[in-house]
Amino acid sequence: MLSVAARAGPFAPFVSAAAHAVPGPLRPLAPAAAHRDRKVPLDLKRPLLCRESLSGRAARGGLVASASLNAPAGVRCVHNDVAVPDFSAYRRQDVQDASASSQGSSDSRKGFSYLMTAATGVATAYVAKNVVTQFISSLSASADVLALSKIEIKLSDIPEGKNMAFKWRGKPLFVRHRTQAEISQEAGVDVSQLRDPQHDLDRVKKPEWVILVGVCTHLGCVPIANAGDFGGYYCPCHGSHYDASGRIRKGPAPLNLEVPFYQFIGDDTVVVG
Ligand code: FES
C-alpha cells in the first residue's frame, strides 16, 4: 500500500512519503509472524510526549492527502453541492426579481424603514419613561411615611381663646383659636418695630386660627402658650416672648415661630403637612 503525504507552502521541505500497512475493505491486515529465535531489542527510551505521540499520529501530521488502491478517498476540495435555502418567503414583493432595478421600490422601502425606526423610537421612549418613573418613585417616601407626615385637626374641639398642642413629625404643633381682641391687637402692631418683620395677616389663612410649630427659634425649647409679656407664647429657657401671632417681641430668639404648610378642609377641619 502506498500513502503519499503532501504539505503546502512553507512546509514543502517537510514533504515526505511513507509506506504504511493499514487494513482495507478488500484486504485485512495479517499479523506478522513471530520469530522466537530472534531477539528484538526493546527501546527503553520514554516516548516524547507531544501532540503527535499523544494522539497516535505521525510526527509530521497535519494536512495530509492519501491515496491507495483500496483506500477510500478522504479529501474534499469543494462544497458546491450544498443547496442554498430559498428566502423568497422572507423577501419583499418588489425585490423578488434579482434582475430588476431596486430604484423603483426605493420609496416604499424607505417608508418602511422610517416607519420601523419611528415605532422603535416610540417604544424605546415609552420603556425608558416607565423605567425612569419606577426608579424615581422608588426613591420617594412610602404611603405609610406620607400618612405620618400629615395631621388632621378638628377645629371645633378648640374653644375660642385656647391653644392646643399636637405632636406632628416629632415636634409640637400649636393650634390657637384667637379671640377678636387678639386678632385686632396683632393686626395693629407696627411691623417696622419687629425683630423679624411680618404682618399678622401674612402668617394666617383665617385670622381666628394661628397654626405654629412649637419650637423656640433660639435654641429649640418648647414655649408655653398664653404666657409672656405679649400674651402669646413664652419660652422659659432664656426668656423669649412671642405675641399671639407667634412673632418674637422680646428675648434672645432671632426669628418668629415657624408657620407650617396647612390647608383648611371645610370649615371645621385643617390638615397640616
Ligand atoms: S430656647 Fe427659647 S429662649 Fe432660648
Characterise the protein shown here.
- The protein is an alpha+beta fold and 273 residues long.
- The protein contains 4 helices and 12 strands; from the N terminus they run E-E-H-H-H-E-E-E-H-E-E-E-E-E-E-E.
- The strands form 4 sheets. Strands 7-8-9-10 form a 4-stranded antiparallel β-sheet, with no helix packed on it.
- The structure holds FE2/S2 (inorganic) cluster (FES).
- FE2/S2 (inorganic) cluster (FES) binds at residues 216, 218-221, 235, 237-238, 240, 251-253.
- It is a single-pass membrane protein.
SSE layout and pairing:
Layout: E1 3-4, E2 17-18, H1 51-55, H2 106-139, H3 143-148, E3 151-154, E4 163-168, E5 171-177, H4 180-187, E6 209-213, E7 224-225, E8 233-235, E9 240-242, E10 248-250, E11 262-264, E12 269-272
Antiparallel strand pairs: 1-2, 3-12, 4-5, 5-6, 7-8, 8-9, 9-10, 11-12
EC number: 7.1.1.8
Keywords: 2Fe-2S, Disulfide bond, Electron transport, Iron, Iron-sulfur, Membrane, Metal-binding, Mitochondrion, Respiratory chain, Transmembrane, Transmembrane helix, Transport
Membrane topology: Single-pass membrane protein
